[in-house]
Amino acid sequence: MRRRVDYLLLAAMIAGVVALFLPAGAVASWPGLAIALWLGTLIVIAASAFARWTSKIAAPVAIVGACAGAAALYLLVAAGARGAEAYGLWLGVIALALLAWRAMERSAALGAETGNTALNQVAPVLLGLGLIYLWQIVTEGFAVPRVLLPPPSEIAVAIASSLPTLGADFVQTFVRSMIPGYVIGCGAGFLVGVLVDRIPFLQRGLMQMGNMVSALPMVAVAPIMVMWFGFDWQSKAAVVVIMTFFPMLVNTIAGLAALSRIELDLMRTYAASYLQTLTLARLPAAMPFIFNALKVNSTLALIGAIVAEFFGTPIVGMGFRISTEVGRMNISMVWATIAVAAVTGSAAYGAIALVERSLTFWHPSLRKVA
User: What is the pTM of this model?
Assistant: First the structure.
């Protein structure tokens, strides 16, 4: 039987071989360890391009090859490969990107084949690590000024050296400002949504008002909230309430209207009251909509709290830290704060998604396809 050639990896192999013979900036030749690792990567690429492996073998082999190639190119950058004239370095980066793409694709296929939840997370993790690695290589390889974009390694150092400061900012923004506003905004939106469902004529006025408020720029609302509620957490929580109230209201109304006519007729057949129909049928059907609003609001709330801190806050908080460190041109600290905010928002979104999965496992979108 004729073997099928993987042309993507074939192109990666050709690019990787040519990269060895092209100039690498100020580096006269590749360091010995870098050459050894790169040759190992080329062997993996060649074997993966021509061999007919199963996904259980192909995925880990491609990942190991990509890791070896990443180490080789970083050693080349550490040896002094810089600038646009380092053709060998950048061609090697292209070859590595092609191999990493195939590694992620095969990892995703392996996860789908085995149904292993942990394996399904390999491809997203590889993508994230690959983007961070590319960020590091580009900023160092092109000698990007630190004031424009620091490399991830420098941001990691800033995080490690400023943990107490970042911890205090986290408590002020997330715990004291975001969570109270998030709870109040989402809770009020849900309760008003149920009220609107019970009293339909309210829907016209409230929905129009919601559209108007949603169009308001938060950079204009935040200073007003500071004037009304002061410089402490109350003004930031008020901004969060405004940002989270109407998404929850709209999703609650849409969710309560999602129950089909057949199911409503069944509840009437059982002589169920409005409250019984609401609690036993309509609210369970609305849960996916409500959790969708909770997930969206988890990121909106953090953004609102940070933006509100730009316009007046105690000398602590993520927004205060970003605005202050930008003025001091301490960009590494700015990116460190952004990284903490990104991880916080992602963790909040993920936690809500896990709760959703456990409570709405019956929903078709969460059922596993046989």
Answer: 0.81
